[in-house]
Amino acid sequence: MEIDPRRLRILHEVSRRGGVMKAAQALHLTPSAVSQQLAQLEREVGLALFDRSQRRVTLTPAGRVLAAYAERIEEQLAEARHELNRFAERLSGPVTIAAYPTVIRHLLVPALRELAARHPRITPVIHELFGPGAVQELRLGGVDLVVTERDMSQPAASLPSMSRHRLYDDEYRIVAPPSWDEVPATVADLVDLPWVAGVPDQACGQALERLAQLHGFVPRRVHLIAEFPPVLGLVSAGHGVAIVPSLALLDVPAGEVVVTGIRGVGSRRIEALTRVSRTTSGEPDPMQAVVIEVLREAADAVDRRVRELSRAPLGPSM
């Protein structure tokens, strides 16, 4: 019995992603190509690996056994690649990073310039992906590193088989429209104002809920927006106040919004997630390690910019 290990990888993807279509997307193949390879694998082993009698194709007992071995082989190959990288004079190959827009703009772009200068043979691949979907892709091996956020008042969620790497603590600021005659100066001034609110499962949405509970008011969430550019656009147009992180304000033109003097709203933590290393040495993956290194350096540079801006007069100038 001769088994092509390349077909085992396809079986592994179908098993862990739950179907041919999703496996094809992950492998950058057509569904028919995946089906053909699986049919050939069944001919190689002389057993039915899939039950096709139902509407949804499932693995047979033999298929589940072979898929488990395929997973172990994938893990061993990944470990071998990671270990061999330590003997190479230069790190090389792709590293796939999932992140959300503000991090891509302010951390990843400068970090990748430095990465290219130090390790020109590393090929970064950026996916705009965040939230549970990004964590799931990391767990499945679709990405190598995820840059994520969490409100620092919230306990860190348990993520078995993953490691957290702190990058930056990003202070929240409250912004108001420049056209308003009176800029809110205290939390009490916010009680009856309309809000351009973040969505509840994201850090800024959680920060508003925490602020309201702490000060005993119910915010008027007139607008519910996930991304910071439309949040700032609505605030600029006079539609309400908003909580945004300092990172989102770095490129805001002067006079577009007013940054209030209200402080103590809290912070969000920006961190990188990686899978726990399964290498024999126990050391982190070297390519992921150098990406985290340049991300931290970019975060330090951003922190210096934010501190300089925070010392400037508050108001439309930020």
TrEMBL record:
Listed PROSITE patterns: HTH_LYSR
Superkingdom of origin: Bacteria
A family per Pfam: HTH_1
Keyword terms, alphabetized: DNA-binding, Transcription, Transcription regulation
Domain HTH lysR-type stretches: 3-60
Family from the record: Belongs to the LysR transcriptional regulatory family.
The protein's name in its UniProt record: LysR family transcriptional regulator
Organism: Microbispora siamensis
Lineage: Bacteria, Bacillati, Actinomycetota, Actinomycetes, Streptosporangiales
